[in-house]
Amino acid sequence: MSYMALYRKFRPTTFDQVKGQDHIVTTLKNQIRTGRIGHAYLFCGTRGTGKTTVAKILAKAVNCENPLDGEPCNQCAACEEIIDGSSMNVMEIDAASNNGVDNIRDIKEQVQYSPATGKYKVYIIDEVHMLSIGAFNALLKTLEEPPEYVIFILATTEVHKIPITILSRCQRYDFHRITADTIKKQLGDLMKQEQVDVEEKALEYIARMADGSMRDALSLLDQCIAFYLGKKLTYDNVLEVLGTVDIQVYSNLLDYILASDVTGVMNLLEDVTSQGREWSQFITDFLWYLRNLLLVGKGTAASEALEVSTDQLKLLQEKAKTVDENTLIRYIRILSELLNQLRFATSKRVLVEVEMIKMCRPQMEADQGSLLERVRQLEEQLNKLITSGITVKQPQSAGKPESVPKLEKDVNRQLEEKFPKAKIEELTDIVNHWRETKRSLSPQMKFCLQKATLTVNEEGNALKLMFPKEMNVESGYFLDEPERIDLLKQELRRQSGREVELEVGLMESREKQDMIDLECIHMDVNIEE
Fold first, then answer.
1. What is the pLDDT of residues 352-409, one digit of tens each?
2. 8-state DSSP, 66
């Protein structure tokens, strides 16, 4: 007997064997058990999730001579004929190649005749969205009022293409993507039956690569087993057969990009090329790696959405601490655009290399995300200088050596006229901690605070952060999101050890002249040659 592919060999024959679609099989079993069988069903969902399989099981169950708790027996004459494909009661039609009006008219003529044996005639129309408008119109009346012995089961991967007039006449069942854990468990059980030695990590990777499709998972596994026939299938073997790379490669690539190490990135891409990896798959996997890092950084609730092992989760959590959220979002944006371009590119490697250089060199782009990335890089360089013992002083304005000290004197004079000495000392202490607070904020928050003026209210019991009225983006970043103001207050409280009231508002240009700018207090203006 010729070899049969795994997805055909292990196709479910009963509802209980269908994995990941409990919400559907339970409903269908209840309908069959109680006799509340519909005349038209619409099965929709992504490829390989069991639509056609469930349709065939349903066809067997409604015609079975000895059904048990809504399940077909698979032993009676009716079940065996359907399994063999020789039953006259079950017609499977591919709408991709039979999508004309004449094909539907043939069906309308056939439904007039009752089944010679069995209870129901079942028409399974696969990829029903491929029918022409005329074919849909011809199907309408028959679908709405078919004979009592006829059941229509329509299956599609693109439900949005089906006319609403068809949708309203069917019971709709949405097949979910199957989780990686469910696929992995099923693959493990099947490999025990096949007596194939497979590493658990290899099954985990195949389950994730299948993207919710059990059929895809079985096809990928079949391909890997064939390559290493008679040997243990390991994680590295799977990576080699499927043309993908280990997660550590993506971690190294991210480190090179963060360090702006173009040479390191190019060497890594050269290794990827020499291993014969497929570029679209490589970028897709890198995107998922960055997406997982982003979710890990969002906390426990978001981490639950990850389908990774415990060891990988720990590595992701450690890496997420070293990467800024805005940086990750910028990288994901660039790679998403790259993935679309790769579909039509002739020189894919060149395109990948150019986009990777862009990620290393944010100055090549002028959007806000790239500007924030440049700020992050400058801050890192500044911190390296400070930690290495090099003294960094604020530069003096060219041609105005006395302007800053004079401004500081003016501010101190204004404060002495309005507040007692104790209050001035308190404000001075808070302002010194305000500078530390700003250093610990995210690049985006720092960017938005550049044009803001820190001042004090008339009573001296609250700080005021005032934005120019025309700066809609920066001010809106705080005014539209009150939790960001709370975050600012918490950080200032942590730095200063004081309970600080902070208000945010807008000001006219002329108001700034009369405002006390607290950030001018005790500025470091010493200049060392």
1. 999 998 888 876 665 555 566 666 667 766 776 667 666 555 554 444 444 444 445 5
2. S
Q: How far is CA 226 from the centre of its chain?
A: 32
Residue type, 180: A
Q: Give the C-alpha separation, 17 to 57, whole Å.
A: 10
**CA-to-CA distance for 40 and 374, rounded, in angstroms?**
59
Candidates 225, 7, 43; CA nearest to 152 is: 43
Give the alpha-carbon dihedral of 216, 220, 221, 224, to 10 degrees: 170
- Residue in the block written with tokens 């005021």: 464
% of the chain residues with pLDDT over 70:
76
Phi/psi at 174 (nearest 5 deg)? -95, 120
For 301, the enclosing helix (H) or strand (E) is helix 300-303
Compute the distance between CA of residue 210 and CA of residue 192 in angstroms, rounded to an integer.
20
In contact, 452 and 461? CB cutoff 8 Å: no
Q: Which two tokens stand for residue 347?
A: 């020189």
How far is Cα 49 from Cα 186, in angstroms, rounded to an integer?
A: 13
Residue 315: what residue type?
A: L
79 within 8 A of 114, measured Cβ to Cβ: no
List, as one string, the DSSP characters of 111-154.
TTSPPSSSS-EEEEEETGGGS-HHHHHHHHHHHHS--TTEEEEE
Nearest to 420 by CA among 461, 451, 380: 461
Residue indicated by tokens 């679609």? 21
Pairing of strands 463-468, 453-456: antiparallel
